[in-house]
Amino acid sequence: MNDLLSVQHIEKEFDKLNKLIRKLQDAHEESKSVTRAAAMKAIKQRMESDVDEVGMIARFIKAKIEQLDKENLTNRKKPGCGPGTGVDRSRTATTLALRKKFKDKVTEFQVVDTLAEIQERHDAVIEVERKLLELQQIFMDLAILVDAQGEMLDNIETNVSSALDHVQSGNKALHNVKTLQKKSRKWMCWTLIILLIVIAIVLVVVLTPWQSLKGV
């Protein structure tokens, strides 16, 4: 009776083990489509918790199977329960079936590589996020630079317009200077001519009496 209860207890633990393994498999599949480091980290933590629980159940089942083996050896010493008897074969077959089932679950429970793969994927996602942040920073810096260059271009355009205004004003002033120079030259010529005429008149006025006196 106690042996039957032990076997039933082990079977219940196997059911728990099956559910946990399915959860781990689903989490593994979910991790393949996750692209955010936070989500990947959450899946990894959830799987690690399930793995810990699987470990507890597996150790319990293993201990129970080993206990059944010891009980089988003890039971063989009872009358009518020796090696080869129906009772011994039934107990041995049950224990072997549980042992094989446990071995199959251990084989099915290959999560070490899975967790390592998730860790690699998690690291890869973190690296991608880091590069995306760097790229975002580059774009922000570029945007700031473009804005700054835009302001600079606006200032340059303003300065160019101002310079053009100054150039136009300078050209106008230069034109006025040239006009004044032309007028100055013209007045200088007239002044020189008038001066020559005045000198000629003075010479005539001065020399005429002198010539008259000389003739007397």
Automatic annotation (TrEMBL):
<dbReference type="GO" id="GO:0006906">
    <property type="term" value="P:vesicle fusion"/>
</dbReference>
<dbReference type="Pfam" id="PF05739">
    <property type="entry name" value="SNARE"/>
</dbReference>
<comment type="similarity">
    <text>Belongs to the syntaxin family.</text>
</comment>
<keyword id="KW-1133">Transmembrane helix</keyword>
<dbReference type="GO" id="GO:0048278">
    <property type="term" value="P:vesicle docking"/>
</dbReference>
<dbReference type="GO" id="GO:0006887">
    <property type="term" value="P:exocytosis"/>
</dbReference>
<dbReference type="InterPro" id="IPR010989">
    <property type="entry name" value="SNARE"/>
</dbReference>
<feature type="domain" description="T-SNARE coiled-coil homology">
    <location>
        <begin position="115"/>
        <end position="177"/>
    </location>
</feature>
<dbReference type="GO" id="GO:0006886">
    <property type="term" value="P:intracellular protein transport"/>
</dbReference>
<feature type="coiled-coil region">
    <location>
        <begin position="7"/>
        <end position="37"/>
    </location>
</feature>
<dbReference type="GO" id="GO:0005886">
    <property type="term" value="C:plasma membrane"/>
</dbReference>
<dbReference type="GO" id="GO:0031201">
    <property type="term" value="C:SNARE complex"/>
</dbReference>
<dbReference type="InterPro" id="IPR006012">
    <property type="entry name" value="Syntaxin/epimorphin_CS"/>
</dbReference>
<feature type="transmembrane region" description="Helical">
    <location>
        <begin position="187"/>
        <end position="210"/>
    </location>
</feature>
<dbReference type="GO" id="GO:0005484">
    <property type="term" value="F:SNAP receptor activity"/>
</dbReference>
<dbReference type="InterPro" id="IPR045242">
    <property type="entry name" value="Syntaxin"/>
</dbReference>
<dbReference type="Pfam" id="PF00804">
    <property type="entry name" value="Syntaxin"/>
</dbReference>
<keyword id="KW-0175">Coiled coil</keyword>
<protein>
    <submittedName>
        <fullName>Syntaxin/epimorphin, conserved site-containing protein</fullName>
    </submittedName>
</protein>
<keyword id="KW-0472">Membrane</keyword>
<dbReference type="GO" id="GO:0000149">
    <property type="term" value="F:SNARE binding"/>
</dbReference>
<keyword id="KW-0813">Transport</keyword>
<keyword id="KW-0007">Acetylation</keyword>
<dbReference type="GO" id="GO:0012505">
    <property type="term" value="C:endomembrane system"/>
</dbReference>
<keyword id="KW-0812">Transmembrane</keyword>
<keyword id="KW-0653">Protein transport</keyword>
<dbReference type="InterPro" id="IPR006011">
    <property type="entry name" value="Syntaxin_N"/>
</dbReference>
<dbReference type="InterPro" id="IPR000727">
    <property type="entry name" value="T_SNARE_dom"/>
</dbReference>
